Each structure stands twice: as C-alpha cells, then as structure tokens.
Amino acid sequence: MARYSRRGATRQPSTRDAANGNRFDRWLNAAVSLAVVIAMTVGAAAVLAHWLL
Fold first, then answer.
1. Which residues, other chains included, contact 13 with Cβ-Cβ below 8 Å and sequence gap of 6+?
2. Are 42 and 50 in contact (CB under 8 A)?
3. What is the pLDDT of residues 2-52, one digit of tens each?
C-alpha cells in the first residue's frame, strides 16, 4: 500500500513555464490595479457629483 498519494498533487512548472507565468502575473496585477484605480476615481466623481448637484 502506497504511503503517499499523488492524487491532488500540483504539477511543478518548469523554469521556462514559471518565467512566463511570472510575467503574466505581473501584467495581470498591473492591469487589475489600474482598473481598481479607475473604478475608484469614477466612483468618487459620481459621489461628488451626486452631493453637489
């Protein structure tokens, strides 16, 4: 009987896969951060317009 099961084990990416994934993660992080800043700016402008008009 096997002591350790491989079921559910994650695949370790090769160095090249990890480098590509890391680049994509940084790009995705920057895109999401930009989207959040834009959404907060638009939301703040809407609240100010609602209060002032």
1. 21
2. no
3. 566 666 666 666 666 667 778 889 999 999 999 999 999 999 999 999 999
